[in-house]
Amino acid sequence: LQNELVEVGGIEIAGVNDPARSTAIDDFKTLATATAEKFTLFLKHRPWIDPQSIKQFNLQLSGHAHRGQIFPFNLLTGIPYPLQDGLYPLAKDSYLYTSRGTGCWGPPMRLFSPPEITVIDLVSEQ
What we know:
Elements: E1 4-8, E2 11-15, H1 27-31, E3 40-43, E4 59-62, H2 73-77, E5 86-89, E6 95-98
Parallel strand pairs: 2-3, 3-4, 4-6
Antiparallel strand pairs: 1-2, 5-6
């Protein structure tokens, strides 16, 4: 999804471009048509949070940082991406999940940053 929101099976799914691919990124505008009564899943490559957008989504799924991939780089990647792995509660009943991913950037290795495959089950409250 490139700066758009669609509905699939009663769930709204929104996605924005990665800044490495496009400069036209606007979380707030992309999520502006989200319906408060529906679950909104927000796909964003980098785990950055736009404070204006928090109330517009329920769960943001991100990656990018690989939790540093090789220790001690996690200390460096933690500067721009402090929410670099795991589930984080945000304001307004929103959450961010940042995956460490399974791949690598640069050298094909990981040290003290194990890869992960995440399974998230969305279960209706009804």
